[in-house]
Structures are given as structure tokens and as C-alpha cells.
Amino acid sequence: xxxxxxxxxxxxxxxxxxxxxxxxxxxxxxxxxxxxxxxxxxxxxxxxxxxxxxxxxxxxxxxxxxxxxxxxxxxxxxxxxxxxxxxxxxxxxxxxxxxxxxxxxxxxxxxxxxxxxxxxxxxxxxxxxxxxxxxxxxxxxxxxxxxxxxxxxxxxxxxxxxxxxxxxxxxxxxxxxxxxxxxxxxxxxxxxxxxxxxxxxxxxxxxxxxxxxxxxxxxxxxxxxxxxxxxxxxxxx
Length: 237
Ligand code: UDP
Fold this sequence. Notes:
alpha+beta, Phosphorylase Kinase, domain 1, D-amino Acid Aminotransferase, Chain A, domain 1, 2 domains, 14 strands
């Protein structure tokens, strides 16, 4: 497969065309941003870790009945994926209170939630990704009711599969963000990435943060946290 012209450059990934119209190559960068792009930096080794972790998890999810955009890993940082049109929503699933939920509802970080919470944010940098509900989504035509039903079903499936998986490596899955896309034949699939950039991972014993919050909150030990997650997942760097 040929890597052709760059189609898009985002905050953490570049996307390239290929010689096949329905496939693209994503190329993961070490660049990190937070506070909606206001804070910038690099996390050495992040691109490779996020690429390999995402691919590993996506393949596991496929086996558990969640369709994904994953096709083939072609290098430490590059993966062939199905070309999709992204549903303009950040789908957030929470098991334990943290981050913006703790702030908004005044609940201390680390408080377990009685059942998983799904939240939707409209992907729009200029508006700081405002939270929306199913009524806004239907009214604006961002996704159909059928797609939203599938998104919620897949999101909860991803949550239960990942909770179980991370528990085995002594990691608590606090919350995470998913994105979905629609392929050329109209199939809804899980897209984007699942990594320490997009999940909160706490050591299950010490509650130490093993994710991008270390960068967002200037806690230090950022690279080390990504490397520790890679180590627990037996990802070779
Ligand atoms: N998240 C993300 N991208 C975003 C916003 C959030 O990947 O633009 C993830 C974040 O890593 C966390 C979860 O979604 O695992 C919930 O984030 P929250 O709403 O608490 O936002 P934050 O406190 O990070 O601003």
C-alpha cells in the first residue's frame, strides 16, 4: 500500500491518503495539547505507545462484537484504517468521578459512580466542545436515532470489556472518550484512538495517575506514565 498526500493534521495525528480510496494511514505524533490547544508540549515516545495500545484494544473490541476502523498496523507509529466520516461527537463514558464531572457536580475525584455515565460533547474547538444531549444531536442532524442507539450500545460494551481487561494489569479505568465514524458503505464503526491521551487510568492499588492528566496538571513523570502503561500491556517500544 502506498502512502500518498497528507489529508489532515490534527493535534496528535496526521492522516494520509493511500492508493485505495476507502483506506487512509494515520500517523501518531508525540505532540500533546491540553486545555483545548492552549497548552502545548511533546511527550517523547507517546506516538508509538498510543498507536500500538489503540490497535491492541481495537482488535480486542472487534472480537467482542464492536466494529472498528482498524485494518493493519504498518509501523510503530502508523496504521491503516478505514476512511470514515466522523460523527462530530466526543462520547465520554465514566465509571468514577473525575475531571469536568467532578467540577460540574461538586463530587470529589475518585468517587465511584453507581452505574456508568455516558455524556456527549459537540466536537467544536471554537466552542470548547460543549456538552449536548440526544435532543440536540437529533435536532442538529449530527447523528440519526439509530446511530445514537448503536453508539450507546457500543460505548457500554467497550466500557465493560476494557474495565475487565485493565483490571488484570491492576489499572482502574476511571473514564474515557470515544469517537465514531461512518464508512463509505454506511456502517457505524469505532474510530480515533484509545490511549492514555483519551482515558483516565489509575493504578488500582496506589491510585497513581498513569495518563495525560500528568501533562494537563503539570504533575511531572509524564513520559514515565505512558511507558508504565506500555510495560503493563507488554507493548514493545
Ligand atoms: N477527553 C478526551 N478529549 C477531550 C476531552 C476529554 O480524550 O477533548 C477524555 C479525558 O481524557 C477523560 C474523559 O475524556 O478520560 C473525560 O474528560 P473530562 O470531561 O473530565 O474533561 P477534562 O477534565 O479532561 O477537561
